[in-house]
Amino acid sequence: MGRRLSQAPVLRYACTDDSGRSYYITTPIFYVNAAPHIGHVYSAVTADCLHRYKILQGFSSRFATGTDEHGLKIQQAAGTAGKEPLTFCTEVSDRFRHVFKSCAVSYTDFIRTTEDSHWRAVEHFWSTLLNKGWIYKGTYEGWYSTPDESFLTPGQVTDSTDSMGRAIKISTESGHKVEWMKEENYLFRLSGFQDRLREWLQSNPKAIQPEKFYNIVLQWLENDLPDLSVSRQRSRLQWGIPVPGDPEQTVYVWLDALVNYLTVAGYPETHSHWWSVVHHVVGKDILKFHAIYWPAFLLAAELPLPRAIYVHSHWTVQGKKMSKSLGNVVDPVETSQKFTVDGFRYFLLRQGVPDTDCDYDDDKVVKLCNSELADSLGGLLNRCTAPSLNPEQVYSHFCSTSFPKEARGRAVPEDYRMIEAVSGLPALVKEHFENLQVYKALEAISACVRLTNGFIQRHAPWKLNCSDAEDKRWHDTILHVAMECLRIYGILLQPVTPGLADKILCRIGVQPGERSWDHALDFLSKYDRRDCPYEGRKLGPDTGVLFNRIERSKPKGNTPKPGKR
Ligand code: MSP
Hints:
Elements: E1 22-26, E2 30-31, H1 38-56, E3 60-68, H2 72-80, H3 85-102, E4 109-112, H4 116-131, E5 135-145, E6 150-152, E7 157-161, E8 167-171, E9 179-188, H5 194-203, E10 208-209, H6 211-220, E11 228-229, E12 231-233, E13 242-243, E14 246-251, H7 253-258, H8 260-265, H9 272-275, E15 278-283, H10 287-300, E16 308-312, E17 315-317, E18 320-321, H11 332-339, H12 341-351, E19 358-360, H13 362-385, H14 413-434, H15 438-459, H16 469-493, H17 498-507, H18 517-521
Parallel strand pairs: 1-3, 1-15, 2-3, 3-4, 10-16, 15-16, 17-19
Antiparallel strand pairs: 5-6, 5-9, 7-8, 9-11, 12-14, 13-14, 17-18
This protein binds 5'-O-[(L-methionyl)-sulphamoyl]adenosine.
């Protein structure tokens, strides 16, 4: 269940209903036919970041993830592994839990579609659609891709050849082989929702983010929506939920899977609170299912639509899609061990741009972590807390004569610009988090860390003579300002690098109850002639390095390139 870490002032979050301070975020549920890789972890870490961010803001947040265990390809994968489907699913589902644990993904709910409560929810949802007249029995004839569990129109299919040179048809989007299917099953009247979906998007321009994907969905809605087959004959697919009242049919795996979000919320009995604040994180490959099918199902069931669908692009490796056959799948557990959990999370969220695909490369992780976490942020913490500069080991004192608000004292114009940048940072980070531009938030934090390092470098407190009272006051003021900056960076980084943020805040003596978003809004209070609760406090005892520089792996082959050392 959600946790409430701190209470924000009522006015700031004034709301009209009791759900105004609640938040519910989901990841897609993961197919258990393949081992978890960094792409999956990216979906999960993105959602985790938003969940942690909302908790910092004083929201009661619920974060659901889980595994998608039905369907033909799972049935086939279990068969290939020589295992009973449920045994096979349990094993892979446990691997996902393990991976998420190893990446500090702090979900509150983990759902499996093989659970009884989910079956009940799907049966109820199905019966609701049927009773309201949105499902009818008919004959579906068309292309189907089992790897994508997707029905395709002739326009979404291309000619190709298989490895033996035989002519086949493939899905233009995914490249997976498709087969012609003709069978009697149930169809959902998707065609009846085109206008309502368009209206929903037009009146909610932030419903799908980033904007690029919003526009793609609007474009899709320009074309007619054919009715959607929502069941398969049981003779073809046994590993799934039987259609209520018709044991000859199995519920289509995507309808089954999408309902997971409702199951977690308490559907069909107690969902209304959490359902009214649901937000989905999805990869671009499953946008159509979440932005067209799912809202149409919800409209048909007369349930509220998601508040937002956050869409991200994909990770490639050396420009190629990750796949077992190419042997380029990046294992998240190994990666998080190699670069630490915080290093790995920082890389994913700092380099992951939702609008475009990103390429994974170990060297990039090393470079980024070394420069931004070890050198820049670690260097700043070290400068504020090293016994050589801070022999009293306290949160240093601020002197308003040295750094006055109006006149200049010993501060220079760049210092005032830095204060202004750091004061505005929480608002900027908030805006970027809420638009799923986490990388921009991290870019902004990193730029401020550089400014603070520049500030210390400019005034070189190590050169001041601390036996002179005025110099000592200025020396402490420099450290105080730098520590105040660090406090803000520590608070704002909690959703992304929880371990590192905790290390920073512990070291500078900021207690767990002083780490909410609101605490970041109160920056450098002494500058405004208000008390600073941290001033004079003893520093925390952990004097260890914030982030150890990562040694570069040796390049393969040892012939140096001409002109390079
Ligand atoms: N089971 C469906 C989702 C059902 S949700 C009701 C599914 N599963 S998946 O395991 O294939 O993908 C889960 C998530 O991982 C999706 O958001 C997908 O976009 C994401 N990723 C899978 N490969 C990826 C990359 N290479 N890069 C980034 N994310 C990718 O789809």
